[in-house]
Specification:
Layout lengths: L28 E4 L4 E4 L31 H9 L13 E6 L3 E2 L11 E2 L1 H12 L6 E5 L3 H14 L2 E5 L10 H7 L6 E2 L10 E5 L2 E6 L3 H19 L11 E6 L3 E2 L6 E7 L4 E4 L8 H5 L3 E5 L4 E2 L4 E5 L4
Parallel strand pairs: 3-6, 3-7, 4-5, 7-10, 11-14
Antiparallel strand pairs: 1-2, 8-9, 9-10, 11-17, 12-16, 13-14, 13-15, 15-17
Helix pairs in contact: 2-5, 3-4
Length: about 325
């Protein structure tokens, strides 16, 4: 049906317009003359409630670029142009290997003196899933050289990324570096100049990328977010724009200083208004404060910032 000047037809969402140049929502109309005419209760202008072809995505426009993550919204966009398959980076094979005689799996048995529950394995596995890397295989190994070497050998053989929690420092019970050496694998780097997270190890064994994270849980969380996570994203073919965690400007709600010689990543809450509040104790074992946070703020060595100072808040918690 062709609509002429001064005429109207009833249509439903998504229907062709038949020559009309505006749409009025039904709730803004009133049927009169036994439905043979309609009264417009709210003035209409040309173009109202019309979706023109090409207004959202036009011919020749790139819908999704290489290196962009496949989110729910991008899946909807791809489906809207009729695509059912795309080429995408594979999910990595991940192993999380926690180390330490003192660790007990939560729910397995009550703690004995000198023991703690293994929080890092569950936390790192959750970080992998939250970033879209899939569920890793988790294994725990005691502080024994031969057991550590065997566990590392299995994990390297079957993984694209091996995330080790603890055992990478120089203590008498830190077995990871000697076990890697026994397998003919030497660190490409060991230690980074940040707090928390100094004893970080990275190397590559065949096709497996090995990250040795500190055993303290906050250090493990931060180094995964800043180092291991971006490396896995790169392996999955992410472009530069999507490698690092997103950040946004914020204001310090309280004074903050760093008297040390390493950059310090504060854990805190970024409010909807853009204020950053440090949460809880800032020690590397303080999981409660970490659990109340949704952002990190980097303080450079020697920094002394007043309340209200502008900082960059890094979102590592999604």
């Amino acid at each position: 049906m062709k609509v002429g000047s001064g005429e109207a037809i009833r249509i439903f969402t998504g229907a062709p317009l038949g020559g009309a140049d505006a749409v009025v929502m039904q709730e803004d109309t009133e049927a009169i003359d036994s439905g043979r005419a309609v009264k417009i209760l709210d003035a209409a202008a040309a173009g109202d409630f019309i979706r023109r072809a090409g207004a959202d995505l036009c011919a020749g426009q790139k819908a999704v670029a290489a290196g962009e993550p496949i989110t729910a919204a991008r899946i909807g966009l791809l489906a809207s142009v009729g695509l059912t398959e795309i080429h995408a980076g594979a999910l990595p094979r991940l192993t999380v290997l926690s180390t330490g005689d003192e660790l007990v799996d939560p729910g397995s048995r009550p703690l004995r003196p000198g023991e703690i529950f293994n929080s890092n394995a569950a936390m790192l596995a959750a970080q992998c899933r939250a970033l879209g890397f899939g569920a890793p295989r988790c294994e725990h190994v005691p502080d024994q050289p031969e057991a550590t070497r065997a566990a590392l050998s299995r994990a390297i053989e079957g993984s694209d990324f091996l995330i080790i929690s603890g055992g990478v420092s120089v203590g008498d019970h830190d077995c990871v570096k000697p076990a890697l050496a026994a397998l003919g694998v030497e660190p490409e780097f060991w230690r980074v100049r940040i707090k928390p997270g100094k004893p970080l190890l990275f190397t590559k064994a065949g096709r497996c990328h090995v990250f040795g994270l500190p055993g303290n849980p906050v250090s493990s969380f931060v180094t995964f977010a800043l180092f291991a996570g971006p490396a896995i994203r790169r392996w999955m073919r992410a472009s530069d724009a999507f490698l690092l965690p997103p950040s946004a400007p914020a204001r310090l709600a309280h004074p903050a200083e760093n008297q040390g010689d390493r950059p310090h990543y504060l854990r805190g809450e970024l409010t909807p208004g853009g204020d950053f509040h440090p949460t809880g104790a800032q020690q590397s074992n303080a999981l409660y404060g970490l659990s109340r946070a949704n952002a990190l703020v980097r303080l450079d060595p020697g920094a002394a910032l007043a309340a209200g100072a502008l900082v960059e808040a890094i979102n590592c918690y999604s």
